[in-house]
Write a structure and sequence with these properties.
147 residues, binds iron/sulfur cluster, alpha/beta, four-stranded parallel beta sheet
Length: 147
Amino acid sequence: MNILVSACLLGVNCRYNGEGKLQEDLLKLQEHHHLIPICPEQLGGLPTPRPASEIQNQRVMSKTGIDVTEQFEAGAFESLKLAKLYQCTYAILKERSPSCGYGTIYDGSFTDSLIDGNGITANLLAEHGITVIGESKLTEFIKLLRD
Ligand code: SF4
């Protein structure tokens, strides 16, 4: 099966701070499935490193006050294109991110506060029928695929 994955979870240094966030369990998953890495923020044309961004009133704003909604939306559409190209029905995405977060995201105040909501890419993928899984649910998901 082809599974879309946030590239930072595979250890790619694509996060806003120029670092990755490797989830070792993904390497196990890779033994039996094809993982398709995406970084929507890079796909949307943003540089790495870049200022952190959060969603405020349905716009994505960088910590430095720049509206980056257009880049976030472009990255979401490129990610969807890859999901369709590789017929992915699942996406394992980085939690809380304004792009990849699903269910819970930062609240826009840049104070590490969380609210219910979805990142721009996670939301678009879910609207197209792709099941989004956060990294904290990875163990359960791997077990589900095995059973
Ligand atoms: Fe990771 Fe997604 Fe942020 Fe890219 S946009 S660094 S894949 S959380």
